[in-house]
Amino acid sequence: MTISLTALRQKLFSVVDQVIETGIPVEINRNGHIVKIVLADKKSKLDNLVAHDCIVGDTDDLIEPPPQEWSEPGNL
Question: Which of 42, 63, 66, 74 fits a 20 to 30 Å CA distance from 11?
Fold first, then answer.
């Protein structure tokens, strides 16, 4: 859909709501130049995660406890 800047000014909120609901961009024509209103991609919440170096000690010890540290009756 292409509209003029004047038409956009008159119904800005409804045009933006339409883009949000449908996801279809709207083109605005201004003196032969086209500008688009598009719905930005939503960021995943996982993109906000920051890596931390928080393991203290040898990471191999996390895989399987050494046999001498594990005894069935004593660790239950």
Answer: 42
Which conformational region is residue 34 in: left (phi greater than 0), alpha (psi within -120 to 50 degrees), or beta?
A: beta
Q: What per-residue confidence (pLDDT) applies to 25?
A: 92
Please, which residues have CB within 8 angstroms of residue 37's CB and are 6 or more apart in sequence? 15, 16, 19, 25, 26, 28
Which residue intervals of the chain are DSSP H helices?
5-10, 12-22, 72-75
pLDDT digit string, tens, across residues 21-36: 888 899 999 999 999 9
pTM, full prediction: 0.52
